[in-house]
Amino acid sequence: MTVDEIKEFLDFKVQQYNMPSFIELDPISIPHQFSTKEDIEISAFLTATISWGNRKAILKAANDLMGIMGDSPFDFVMNANSNQIKRVTSFYYRTFNGSDLDYFILSLKNIYENHDGLEKIFSKYANKNLHDSINDFRSVFFELPHEERTQKHISNPSKGSAAKRLHMMLRWLVRKDTNGVDFGIWKRISPSILSIPLDLHSGKTARKLGLLSRKQNDLKAVVELDSICRKFDPNDPAKYDFALFGLGINEKF
Fold first, then answer.
1. What is the pLDDT of residues 169-216, one digit of tens each?
2. Using the 8-state DSSP alphabet, how is residue 228 labeled?
3. Are 219 and 157 in contact (CB under 8 A)?
4. Which of 45, 50, 84, 49 is nearest to 67 (CA)?
5. CA distance 17 to 145
6. In sequence order, what are the residues at sequence separation of 6 or more whose Cβ sits closer than 8 angstroms to the Cβ of residue 25?
7. For 194, how many CA atoms within 13 A lie in the half-sphere containing its CB?
8. Most buried residue among 82, 189, 203, 215 by CB atoms closer than 10 A?
9. Distance between CA 138 and CA 208 in Å, rounded?
10. Average pLDDT score over the chain
């Protein structure tokens, strides 16, 4: 296919997958359980953090996590007493365990009490891309005493990470259209600087279409793929995540 034909094909697939029916079986269904900004963004962040592996397992774990937090994540972060906090020690999903979650809750409270919330941190360095914003967030997130092992659960673009899960969360919270999938509740960041949440499925599809030459799914690959998607749609490049991911996981493209 020519470049124009690839764009036309992907635009069609975006329309096919960027629909309310996409929500139910995707991790984005977890923040869709909530209506207030803080509940949406905290549930999105925590769900994205554990979004690797089988989607059914992710959804079960994320729903369990919301249950531990009384299905009120912001209130739990800000007001949980010592007995409620103890409940988190029983949680685990793969290598993310109760001690990690305990720190995540403590750090989130610090962010809302002393840094004006998640959106403020991510928007501070939002200019041409969000890689510096993720690095800044990581620094703030780990400014409190913590176990070194917990650091592996927050991606580090400064060391070449594609930061797939955080870019996915950013797509959820920043993108806004009329299709009802992404929330668009963060207004301080332009959708034009969002990146594709590059994973095994989207990377494989992009390579088959000739959009990505780099073999590793790392930061350099994200930058390469972004350069193409931003030519296809300078205002909304991350919409192509629906096409690349949908083709990969649903159609085994």
1. 999 999 999 999 999 999 999 999 999 999 999 999 999 999 999 999
2. H
3. yes
4. 84
5. 42
6. 55, 59
7. 32
8. 203
9. 33
10. 96
pLDDT band at 87 (very low <50, low <70, confident <90, very high): confident
Alpha helix ranges (H) inside 80-217: 82-86, 98-114, 118-123, 131-141, 164-174, 200-208
Percent of the chain whose predicted confidence (pLDDT) is above 90: 91
9 CB contacts (<8 Å, ≥6 apart)? 1, 209
40 token code pair: 């949406």
> Distance of alpha carbon 173 from its chain centroid, rounded?
9
Query: Comparing 42-51, 63-72, 79-88, 93-102, which segment has the lowest mean pLDDT?
Result: 79-88
Q: How far is it between the farthest Cα atoms of the chain?
A: 61
The gap from C-alpha 118 to its chain's centroid, in whole angstroms, comes to 13
